[in-house]
Amino acid sequence: MKYKLNNIYDPNLPYLVNDFLNYLGTIKGKSVNTVKGYKIDLTMFFRFFKLYKGMTRDNVEFENIKIDDIDDSMIKSIKLADLYAFIAFVENYRDNGNYARSRKVATLKSFFKFLQGKTKTIDENPALELESPKINKRNPVYLTLNESKQLLNVIDGRNKERDYCIVTLFLNCGLRLSELCSINISKIKGDTLTVVGKGNKERTIYLNNACIKALEDYLKIRNTNADKIKDKDALFISRNNTRINKRTVELLVKKYIKKANLSQDKYTPHKLRHTAATLMYKYGNVDIRSLQQILGHENVSTTQIYTHVDDEKLREAVKSNPLSDESK
């Protein structure tokens, strides 16, 4: 009997990197996209490390530097200074901003923690004192209530019911793009929808009347071609009768954003998620803990960006000061 290797395994990577990625996927339950991000970061780091230490030919392209020969002794030789040199490299030669560099710092810290605590490959962790770049928190970009209605009103065409349902779910439920694309019909029960979010964690989404109506209208159209659909349980179907992919959703959102005369650069499916959260917080009297659960945030600190978006409330709070009408 032949056994298929785990799809996380890559023969072009150092074996310890493969072990780490496998640990993330199977033990820690990280999503495929998260594991892929760690893989990209560690591949870049070890290519840099070999270049930095003069272990490559002078004329080899960076993307062609082989790293499958990285062994325990090389990893044990890595110092904190090497890690900072890598962070400087991605800033100066890869144009990485604070967010991208912070992600790489997080990857390195997780990897070396794994090597010290799980595999016992290293005695000392060089990433222990590695600091992340300071990130200034930015207020989320979102559509106003009127802009949201404007967006819904321009949806038309051959896939009107499908596209209207997609945008409605984004604006009402705060779904991630990957969560929306992976919705299965079998996970819709009355006014509840179960989705799989980050870290393969399931959460329940409660559907309001607008969502239920949009789903009913779309399913009538979808089910007329049920015999042609390849993935019978997939809710949203592409023109090829397969499960819709993320790029298709991104393009349809961009199309309707343009048609509604909204800023094309500003609004993406993720910005529609911000819109849902903001509208719930502004108009629904949703407390921050409930909003955290709705959005599937692991830490409430991630959700707290929505407590700073309601400038009108701040304006009214200042105006309500009993001294506001006093003047010299």
Description:
With 328 residues, this protein is mainly alpha-helical. The chain has two domains: 15-117, no CATH class; 145-311, Intergrase catalytic core (hpI Integrase, Chain A), CATH 1.10.443. 50% of the residues lie in helices and 4% in strands. The chain is built from 14 helices and three strands. The chain has helices at 15-26, 32-52, 72-76, 80-92, 98-117, 145-153, 160-173, 177-181, 209-222, 246-259, 269-283, 288-295, 300-303, 311-319, and strands at 188-189, 192-196, 202-206. The protein has a three-stranded antiparallel sheet, with no helix packed on it. Strand 1 and strand 2 form a beta hairpin. Helix 2 crosses helix 4. The chain is elongated. The model is unreliable at 1-6 (pLDDT under 50).
Keywords:
disordered N terminus, 3 strands, single chain, 14 helices, hpI Integrase, Chain A, 2 domains, three-stranded antiparallel sheet
